[in-house]
Amino acid sequence: MSRVLSRRQQYSEETREALLTTAAELFVEKGFTKTALAEIAAAAQVTRGAVYHHFADKRDLYRAVMERHEERAMASVTAAFLEHEDPVDGAFAAMRAYLDHGLEPDYAELVLRQGPIALGWEEWQQAEERGHAGLIEQILTSLMAAGRITPLPIEPLAAVTFTALSRCAMDIAGSAPDDRERVREECGQVMVRLLSGLLVR
Fold it and tell me: What tens digit of pLDDT does each residue of 19-55 get?
């Protein structure tokens, strides 16, 4: 009996993986509004019933796709911070890693361009804040604890920093493909200057 359950569980996981991968490809190619659940099911070679077994509707599927990309982005930003012994160096590396995601076609399209359309601005913003804003607060707290930046109320400081970074990432993703590298460079210069103003001299 346990072997049967194990096979069912494996099949279920494989089906969910196929749906997430296929949905991501179609959402990038066609956009959220022009992609139908039936189309995703057909491309993933599963039934519509299998789709509804895992996801309540297309919006729920999109939410899962976006969360997967956000988790990967968070992991890379965290890794960039932890690669450096000096928390200041780590903070700037994390900032660069965050902005670089605006250059990644799939992340830019799924999270930054289509996300607010698929989930609505309020839910999208809350999702972004739960992830990146929390990490930004942790990094700023570590800098403050090490005496490397001016002591300030941490919540508004993290909120302002997140808002600036988020706007930069959206500007990068929203730029014409030929302009994105330039916008990324300009945003990086501005953020370095802003964050450098917090450093204790």
Answer: 999 999 999 999 999 999 999 999 999 999 999 999 9
Spatial separation of the C-alpha atoms in residues 117 and 111, rounded to whole Å:
10
State percent of the chain over pLDDT 90: 86
Please state the φ and ψ torsions of residue 134, each to the nearest 5 degrees: -65, -40
Mean pLDDT of all residues belonging to the chain: 93
Report in angstroms the alpha-carbon separations of 113 from 3, 74, 102, 106, 181. 43, 18, 10, 10, 17
3-state secondary structure the chain: CHHHHHHHHHHHHHHHHHHHHHHHHHHHHHCCCCCCHHHHHHHHCCCHHHHHHHCCCHHHHHHHHHHHHHHHHHHHHHHHHHCCCCHHHHHHHHHHHHHHHHHCHHHHHHHHHCHHHHHCHHHHHHHHHHHHHHHHHHHHHHHHHCCCECCCCHHHHHHHHHHHHHHHHHHHHHCCHHHHHHHHHHHHHHHHHHHHCCECC
Q: Give the number of other CB atoms < 10 A from CB of residue 105.
A: 11
Residue carrying the six token digits 């509004």: 33
The pLDDT of residue 6 is 72
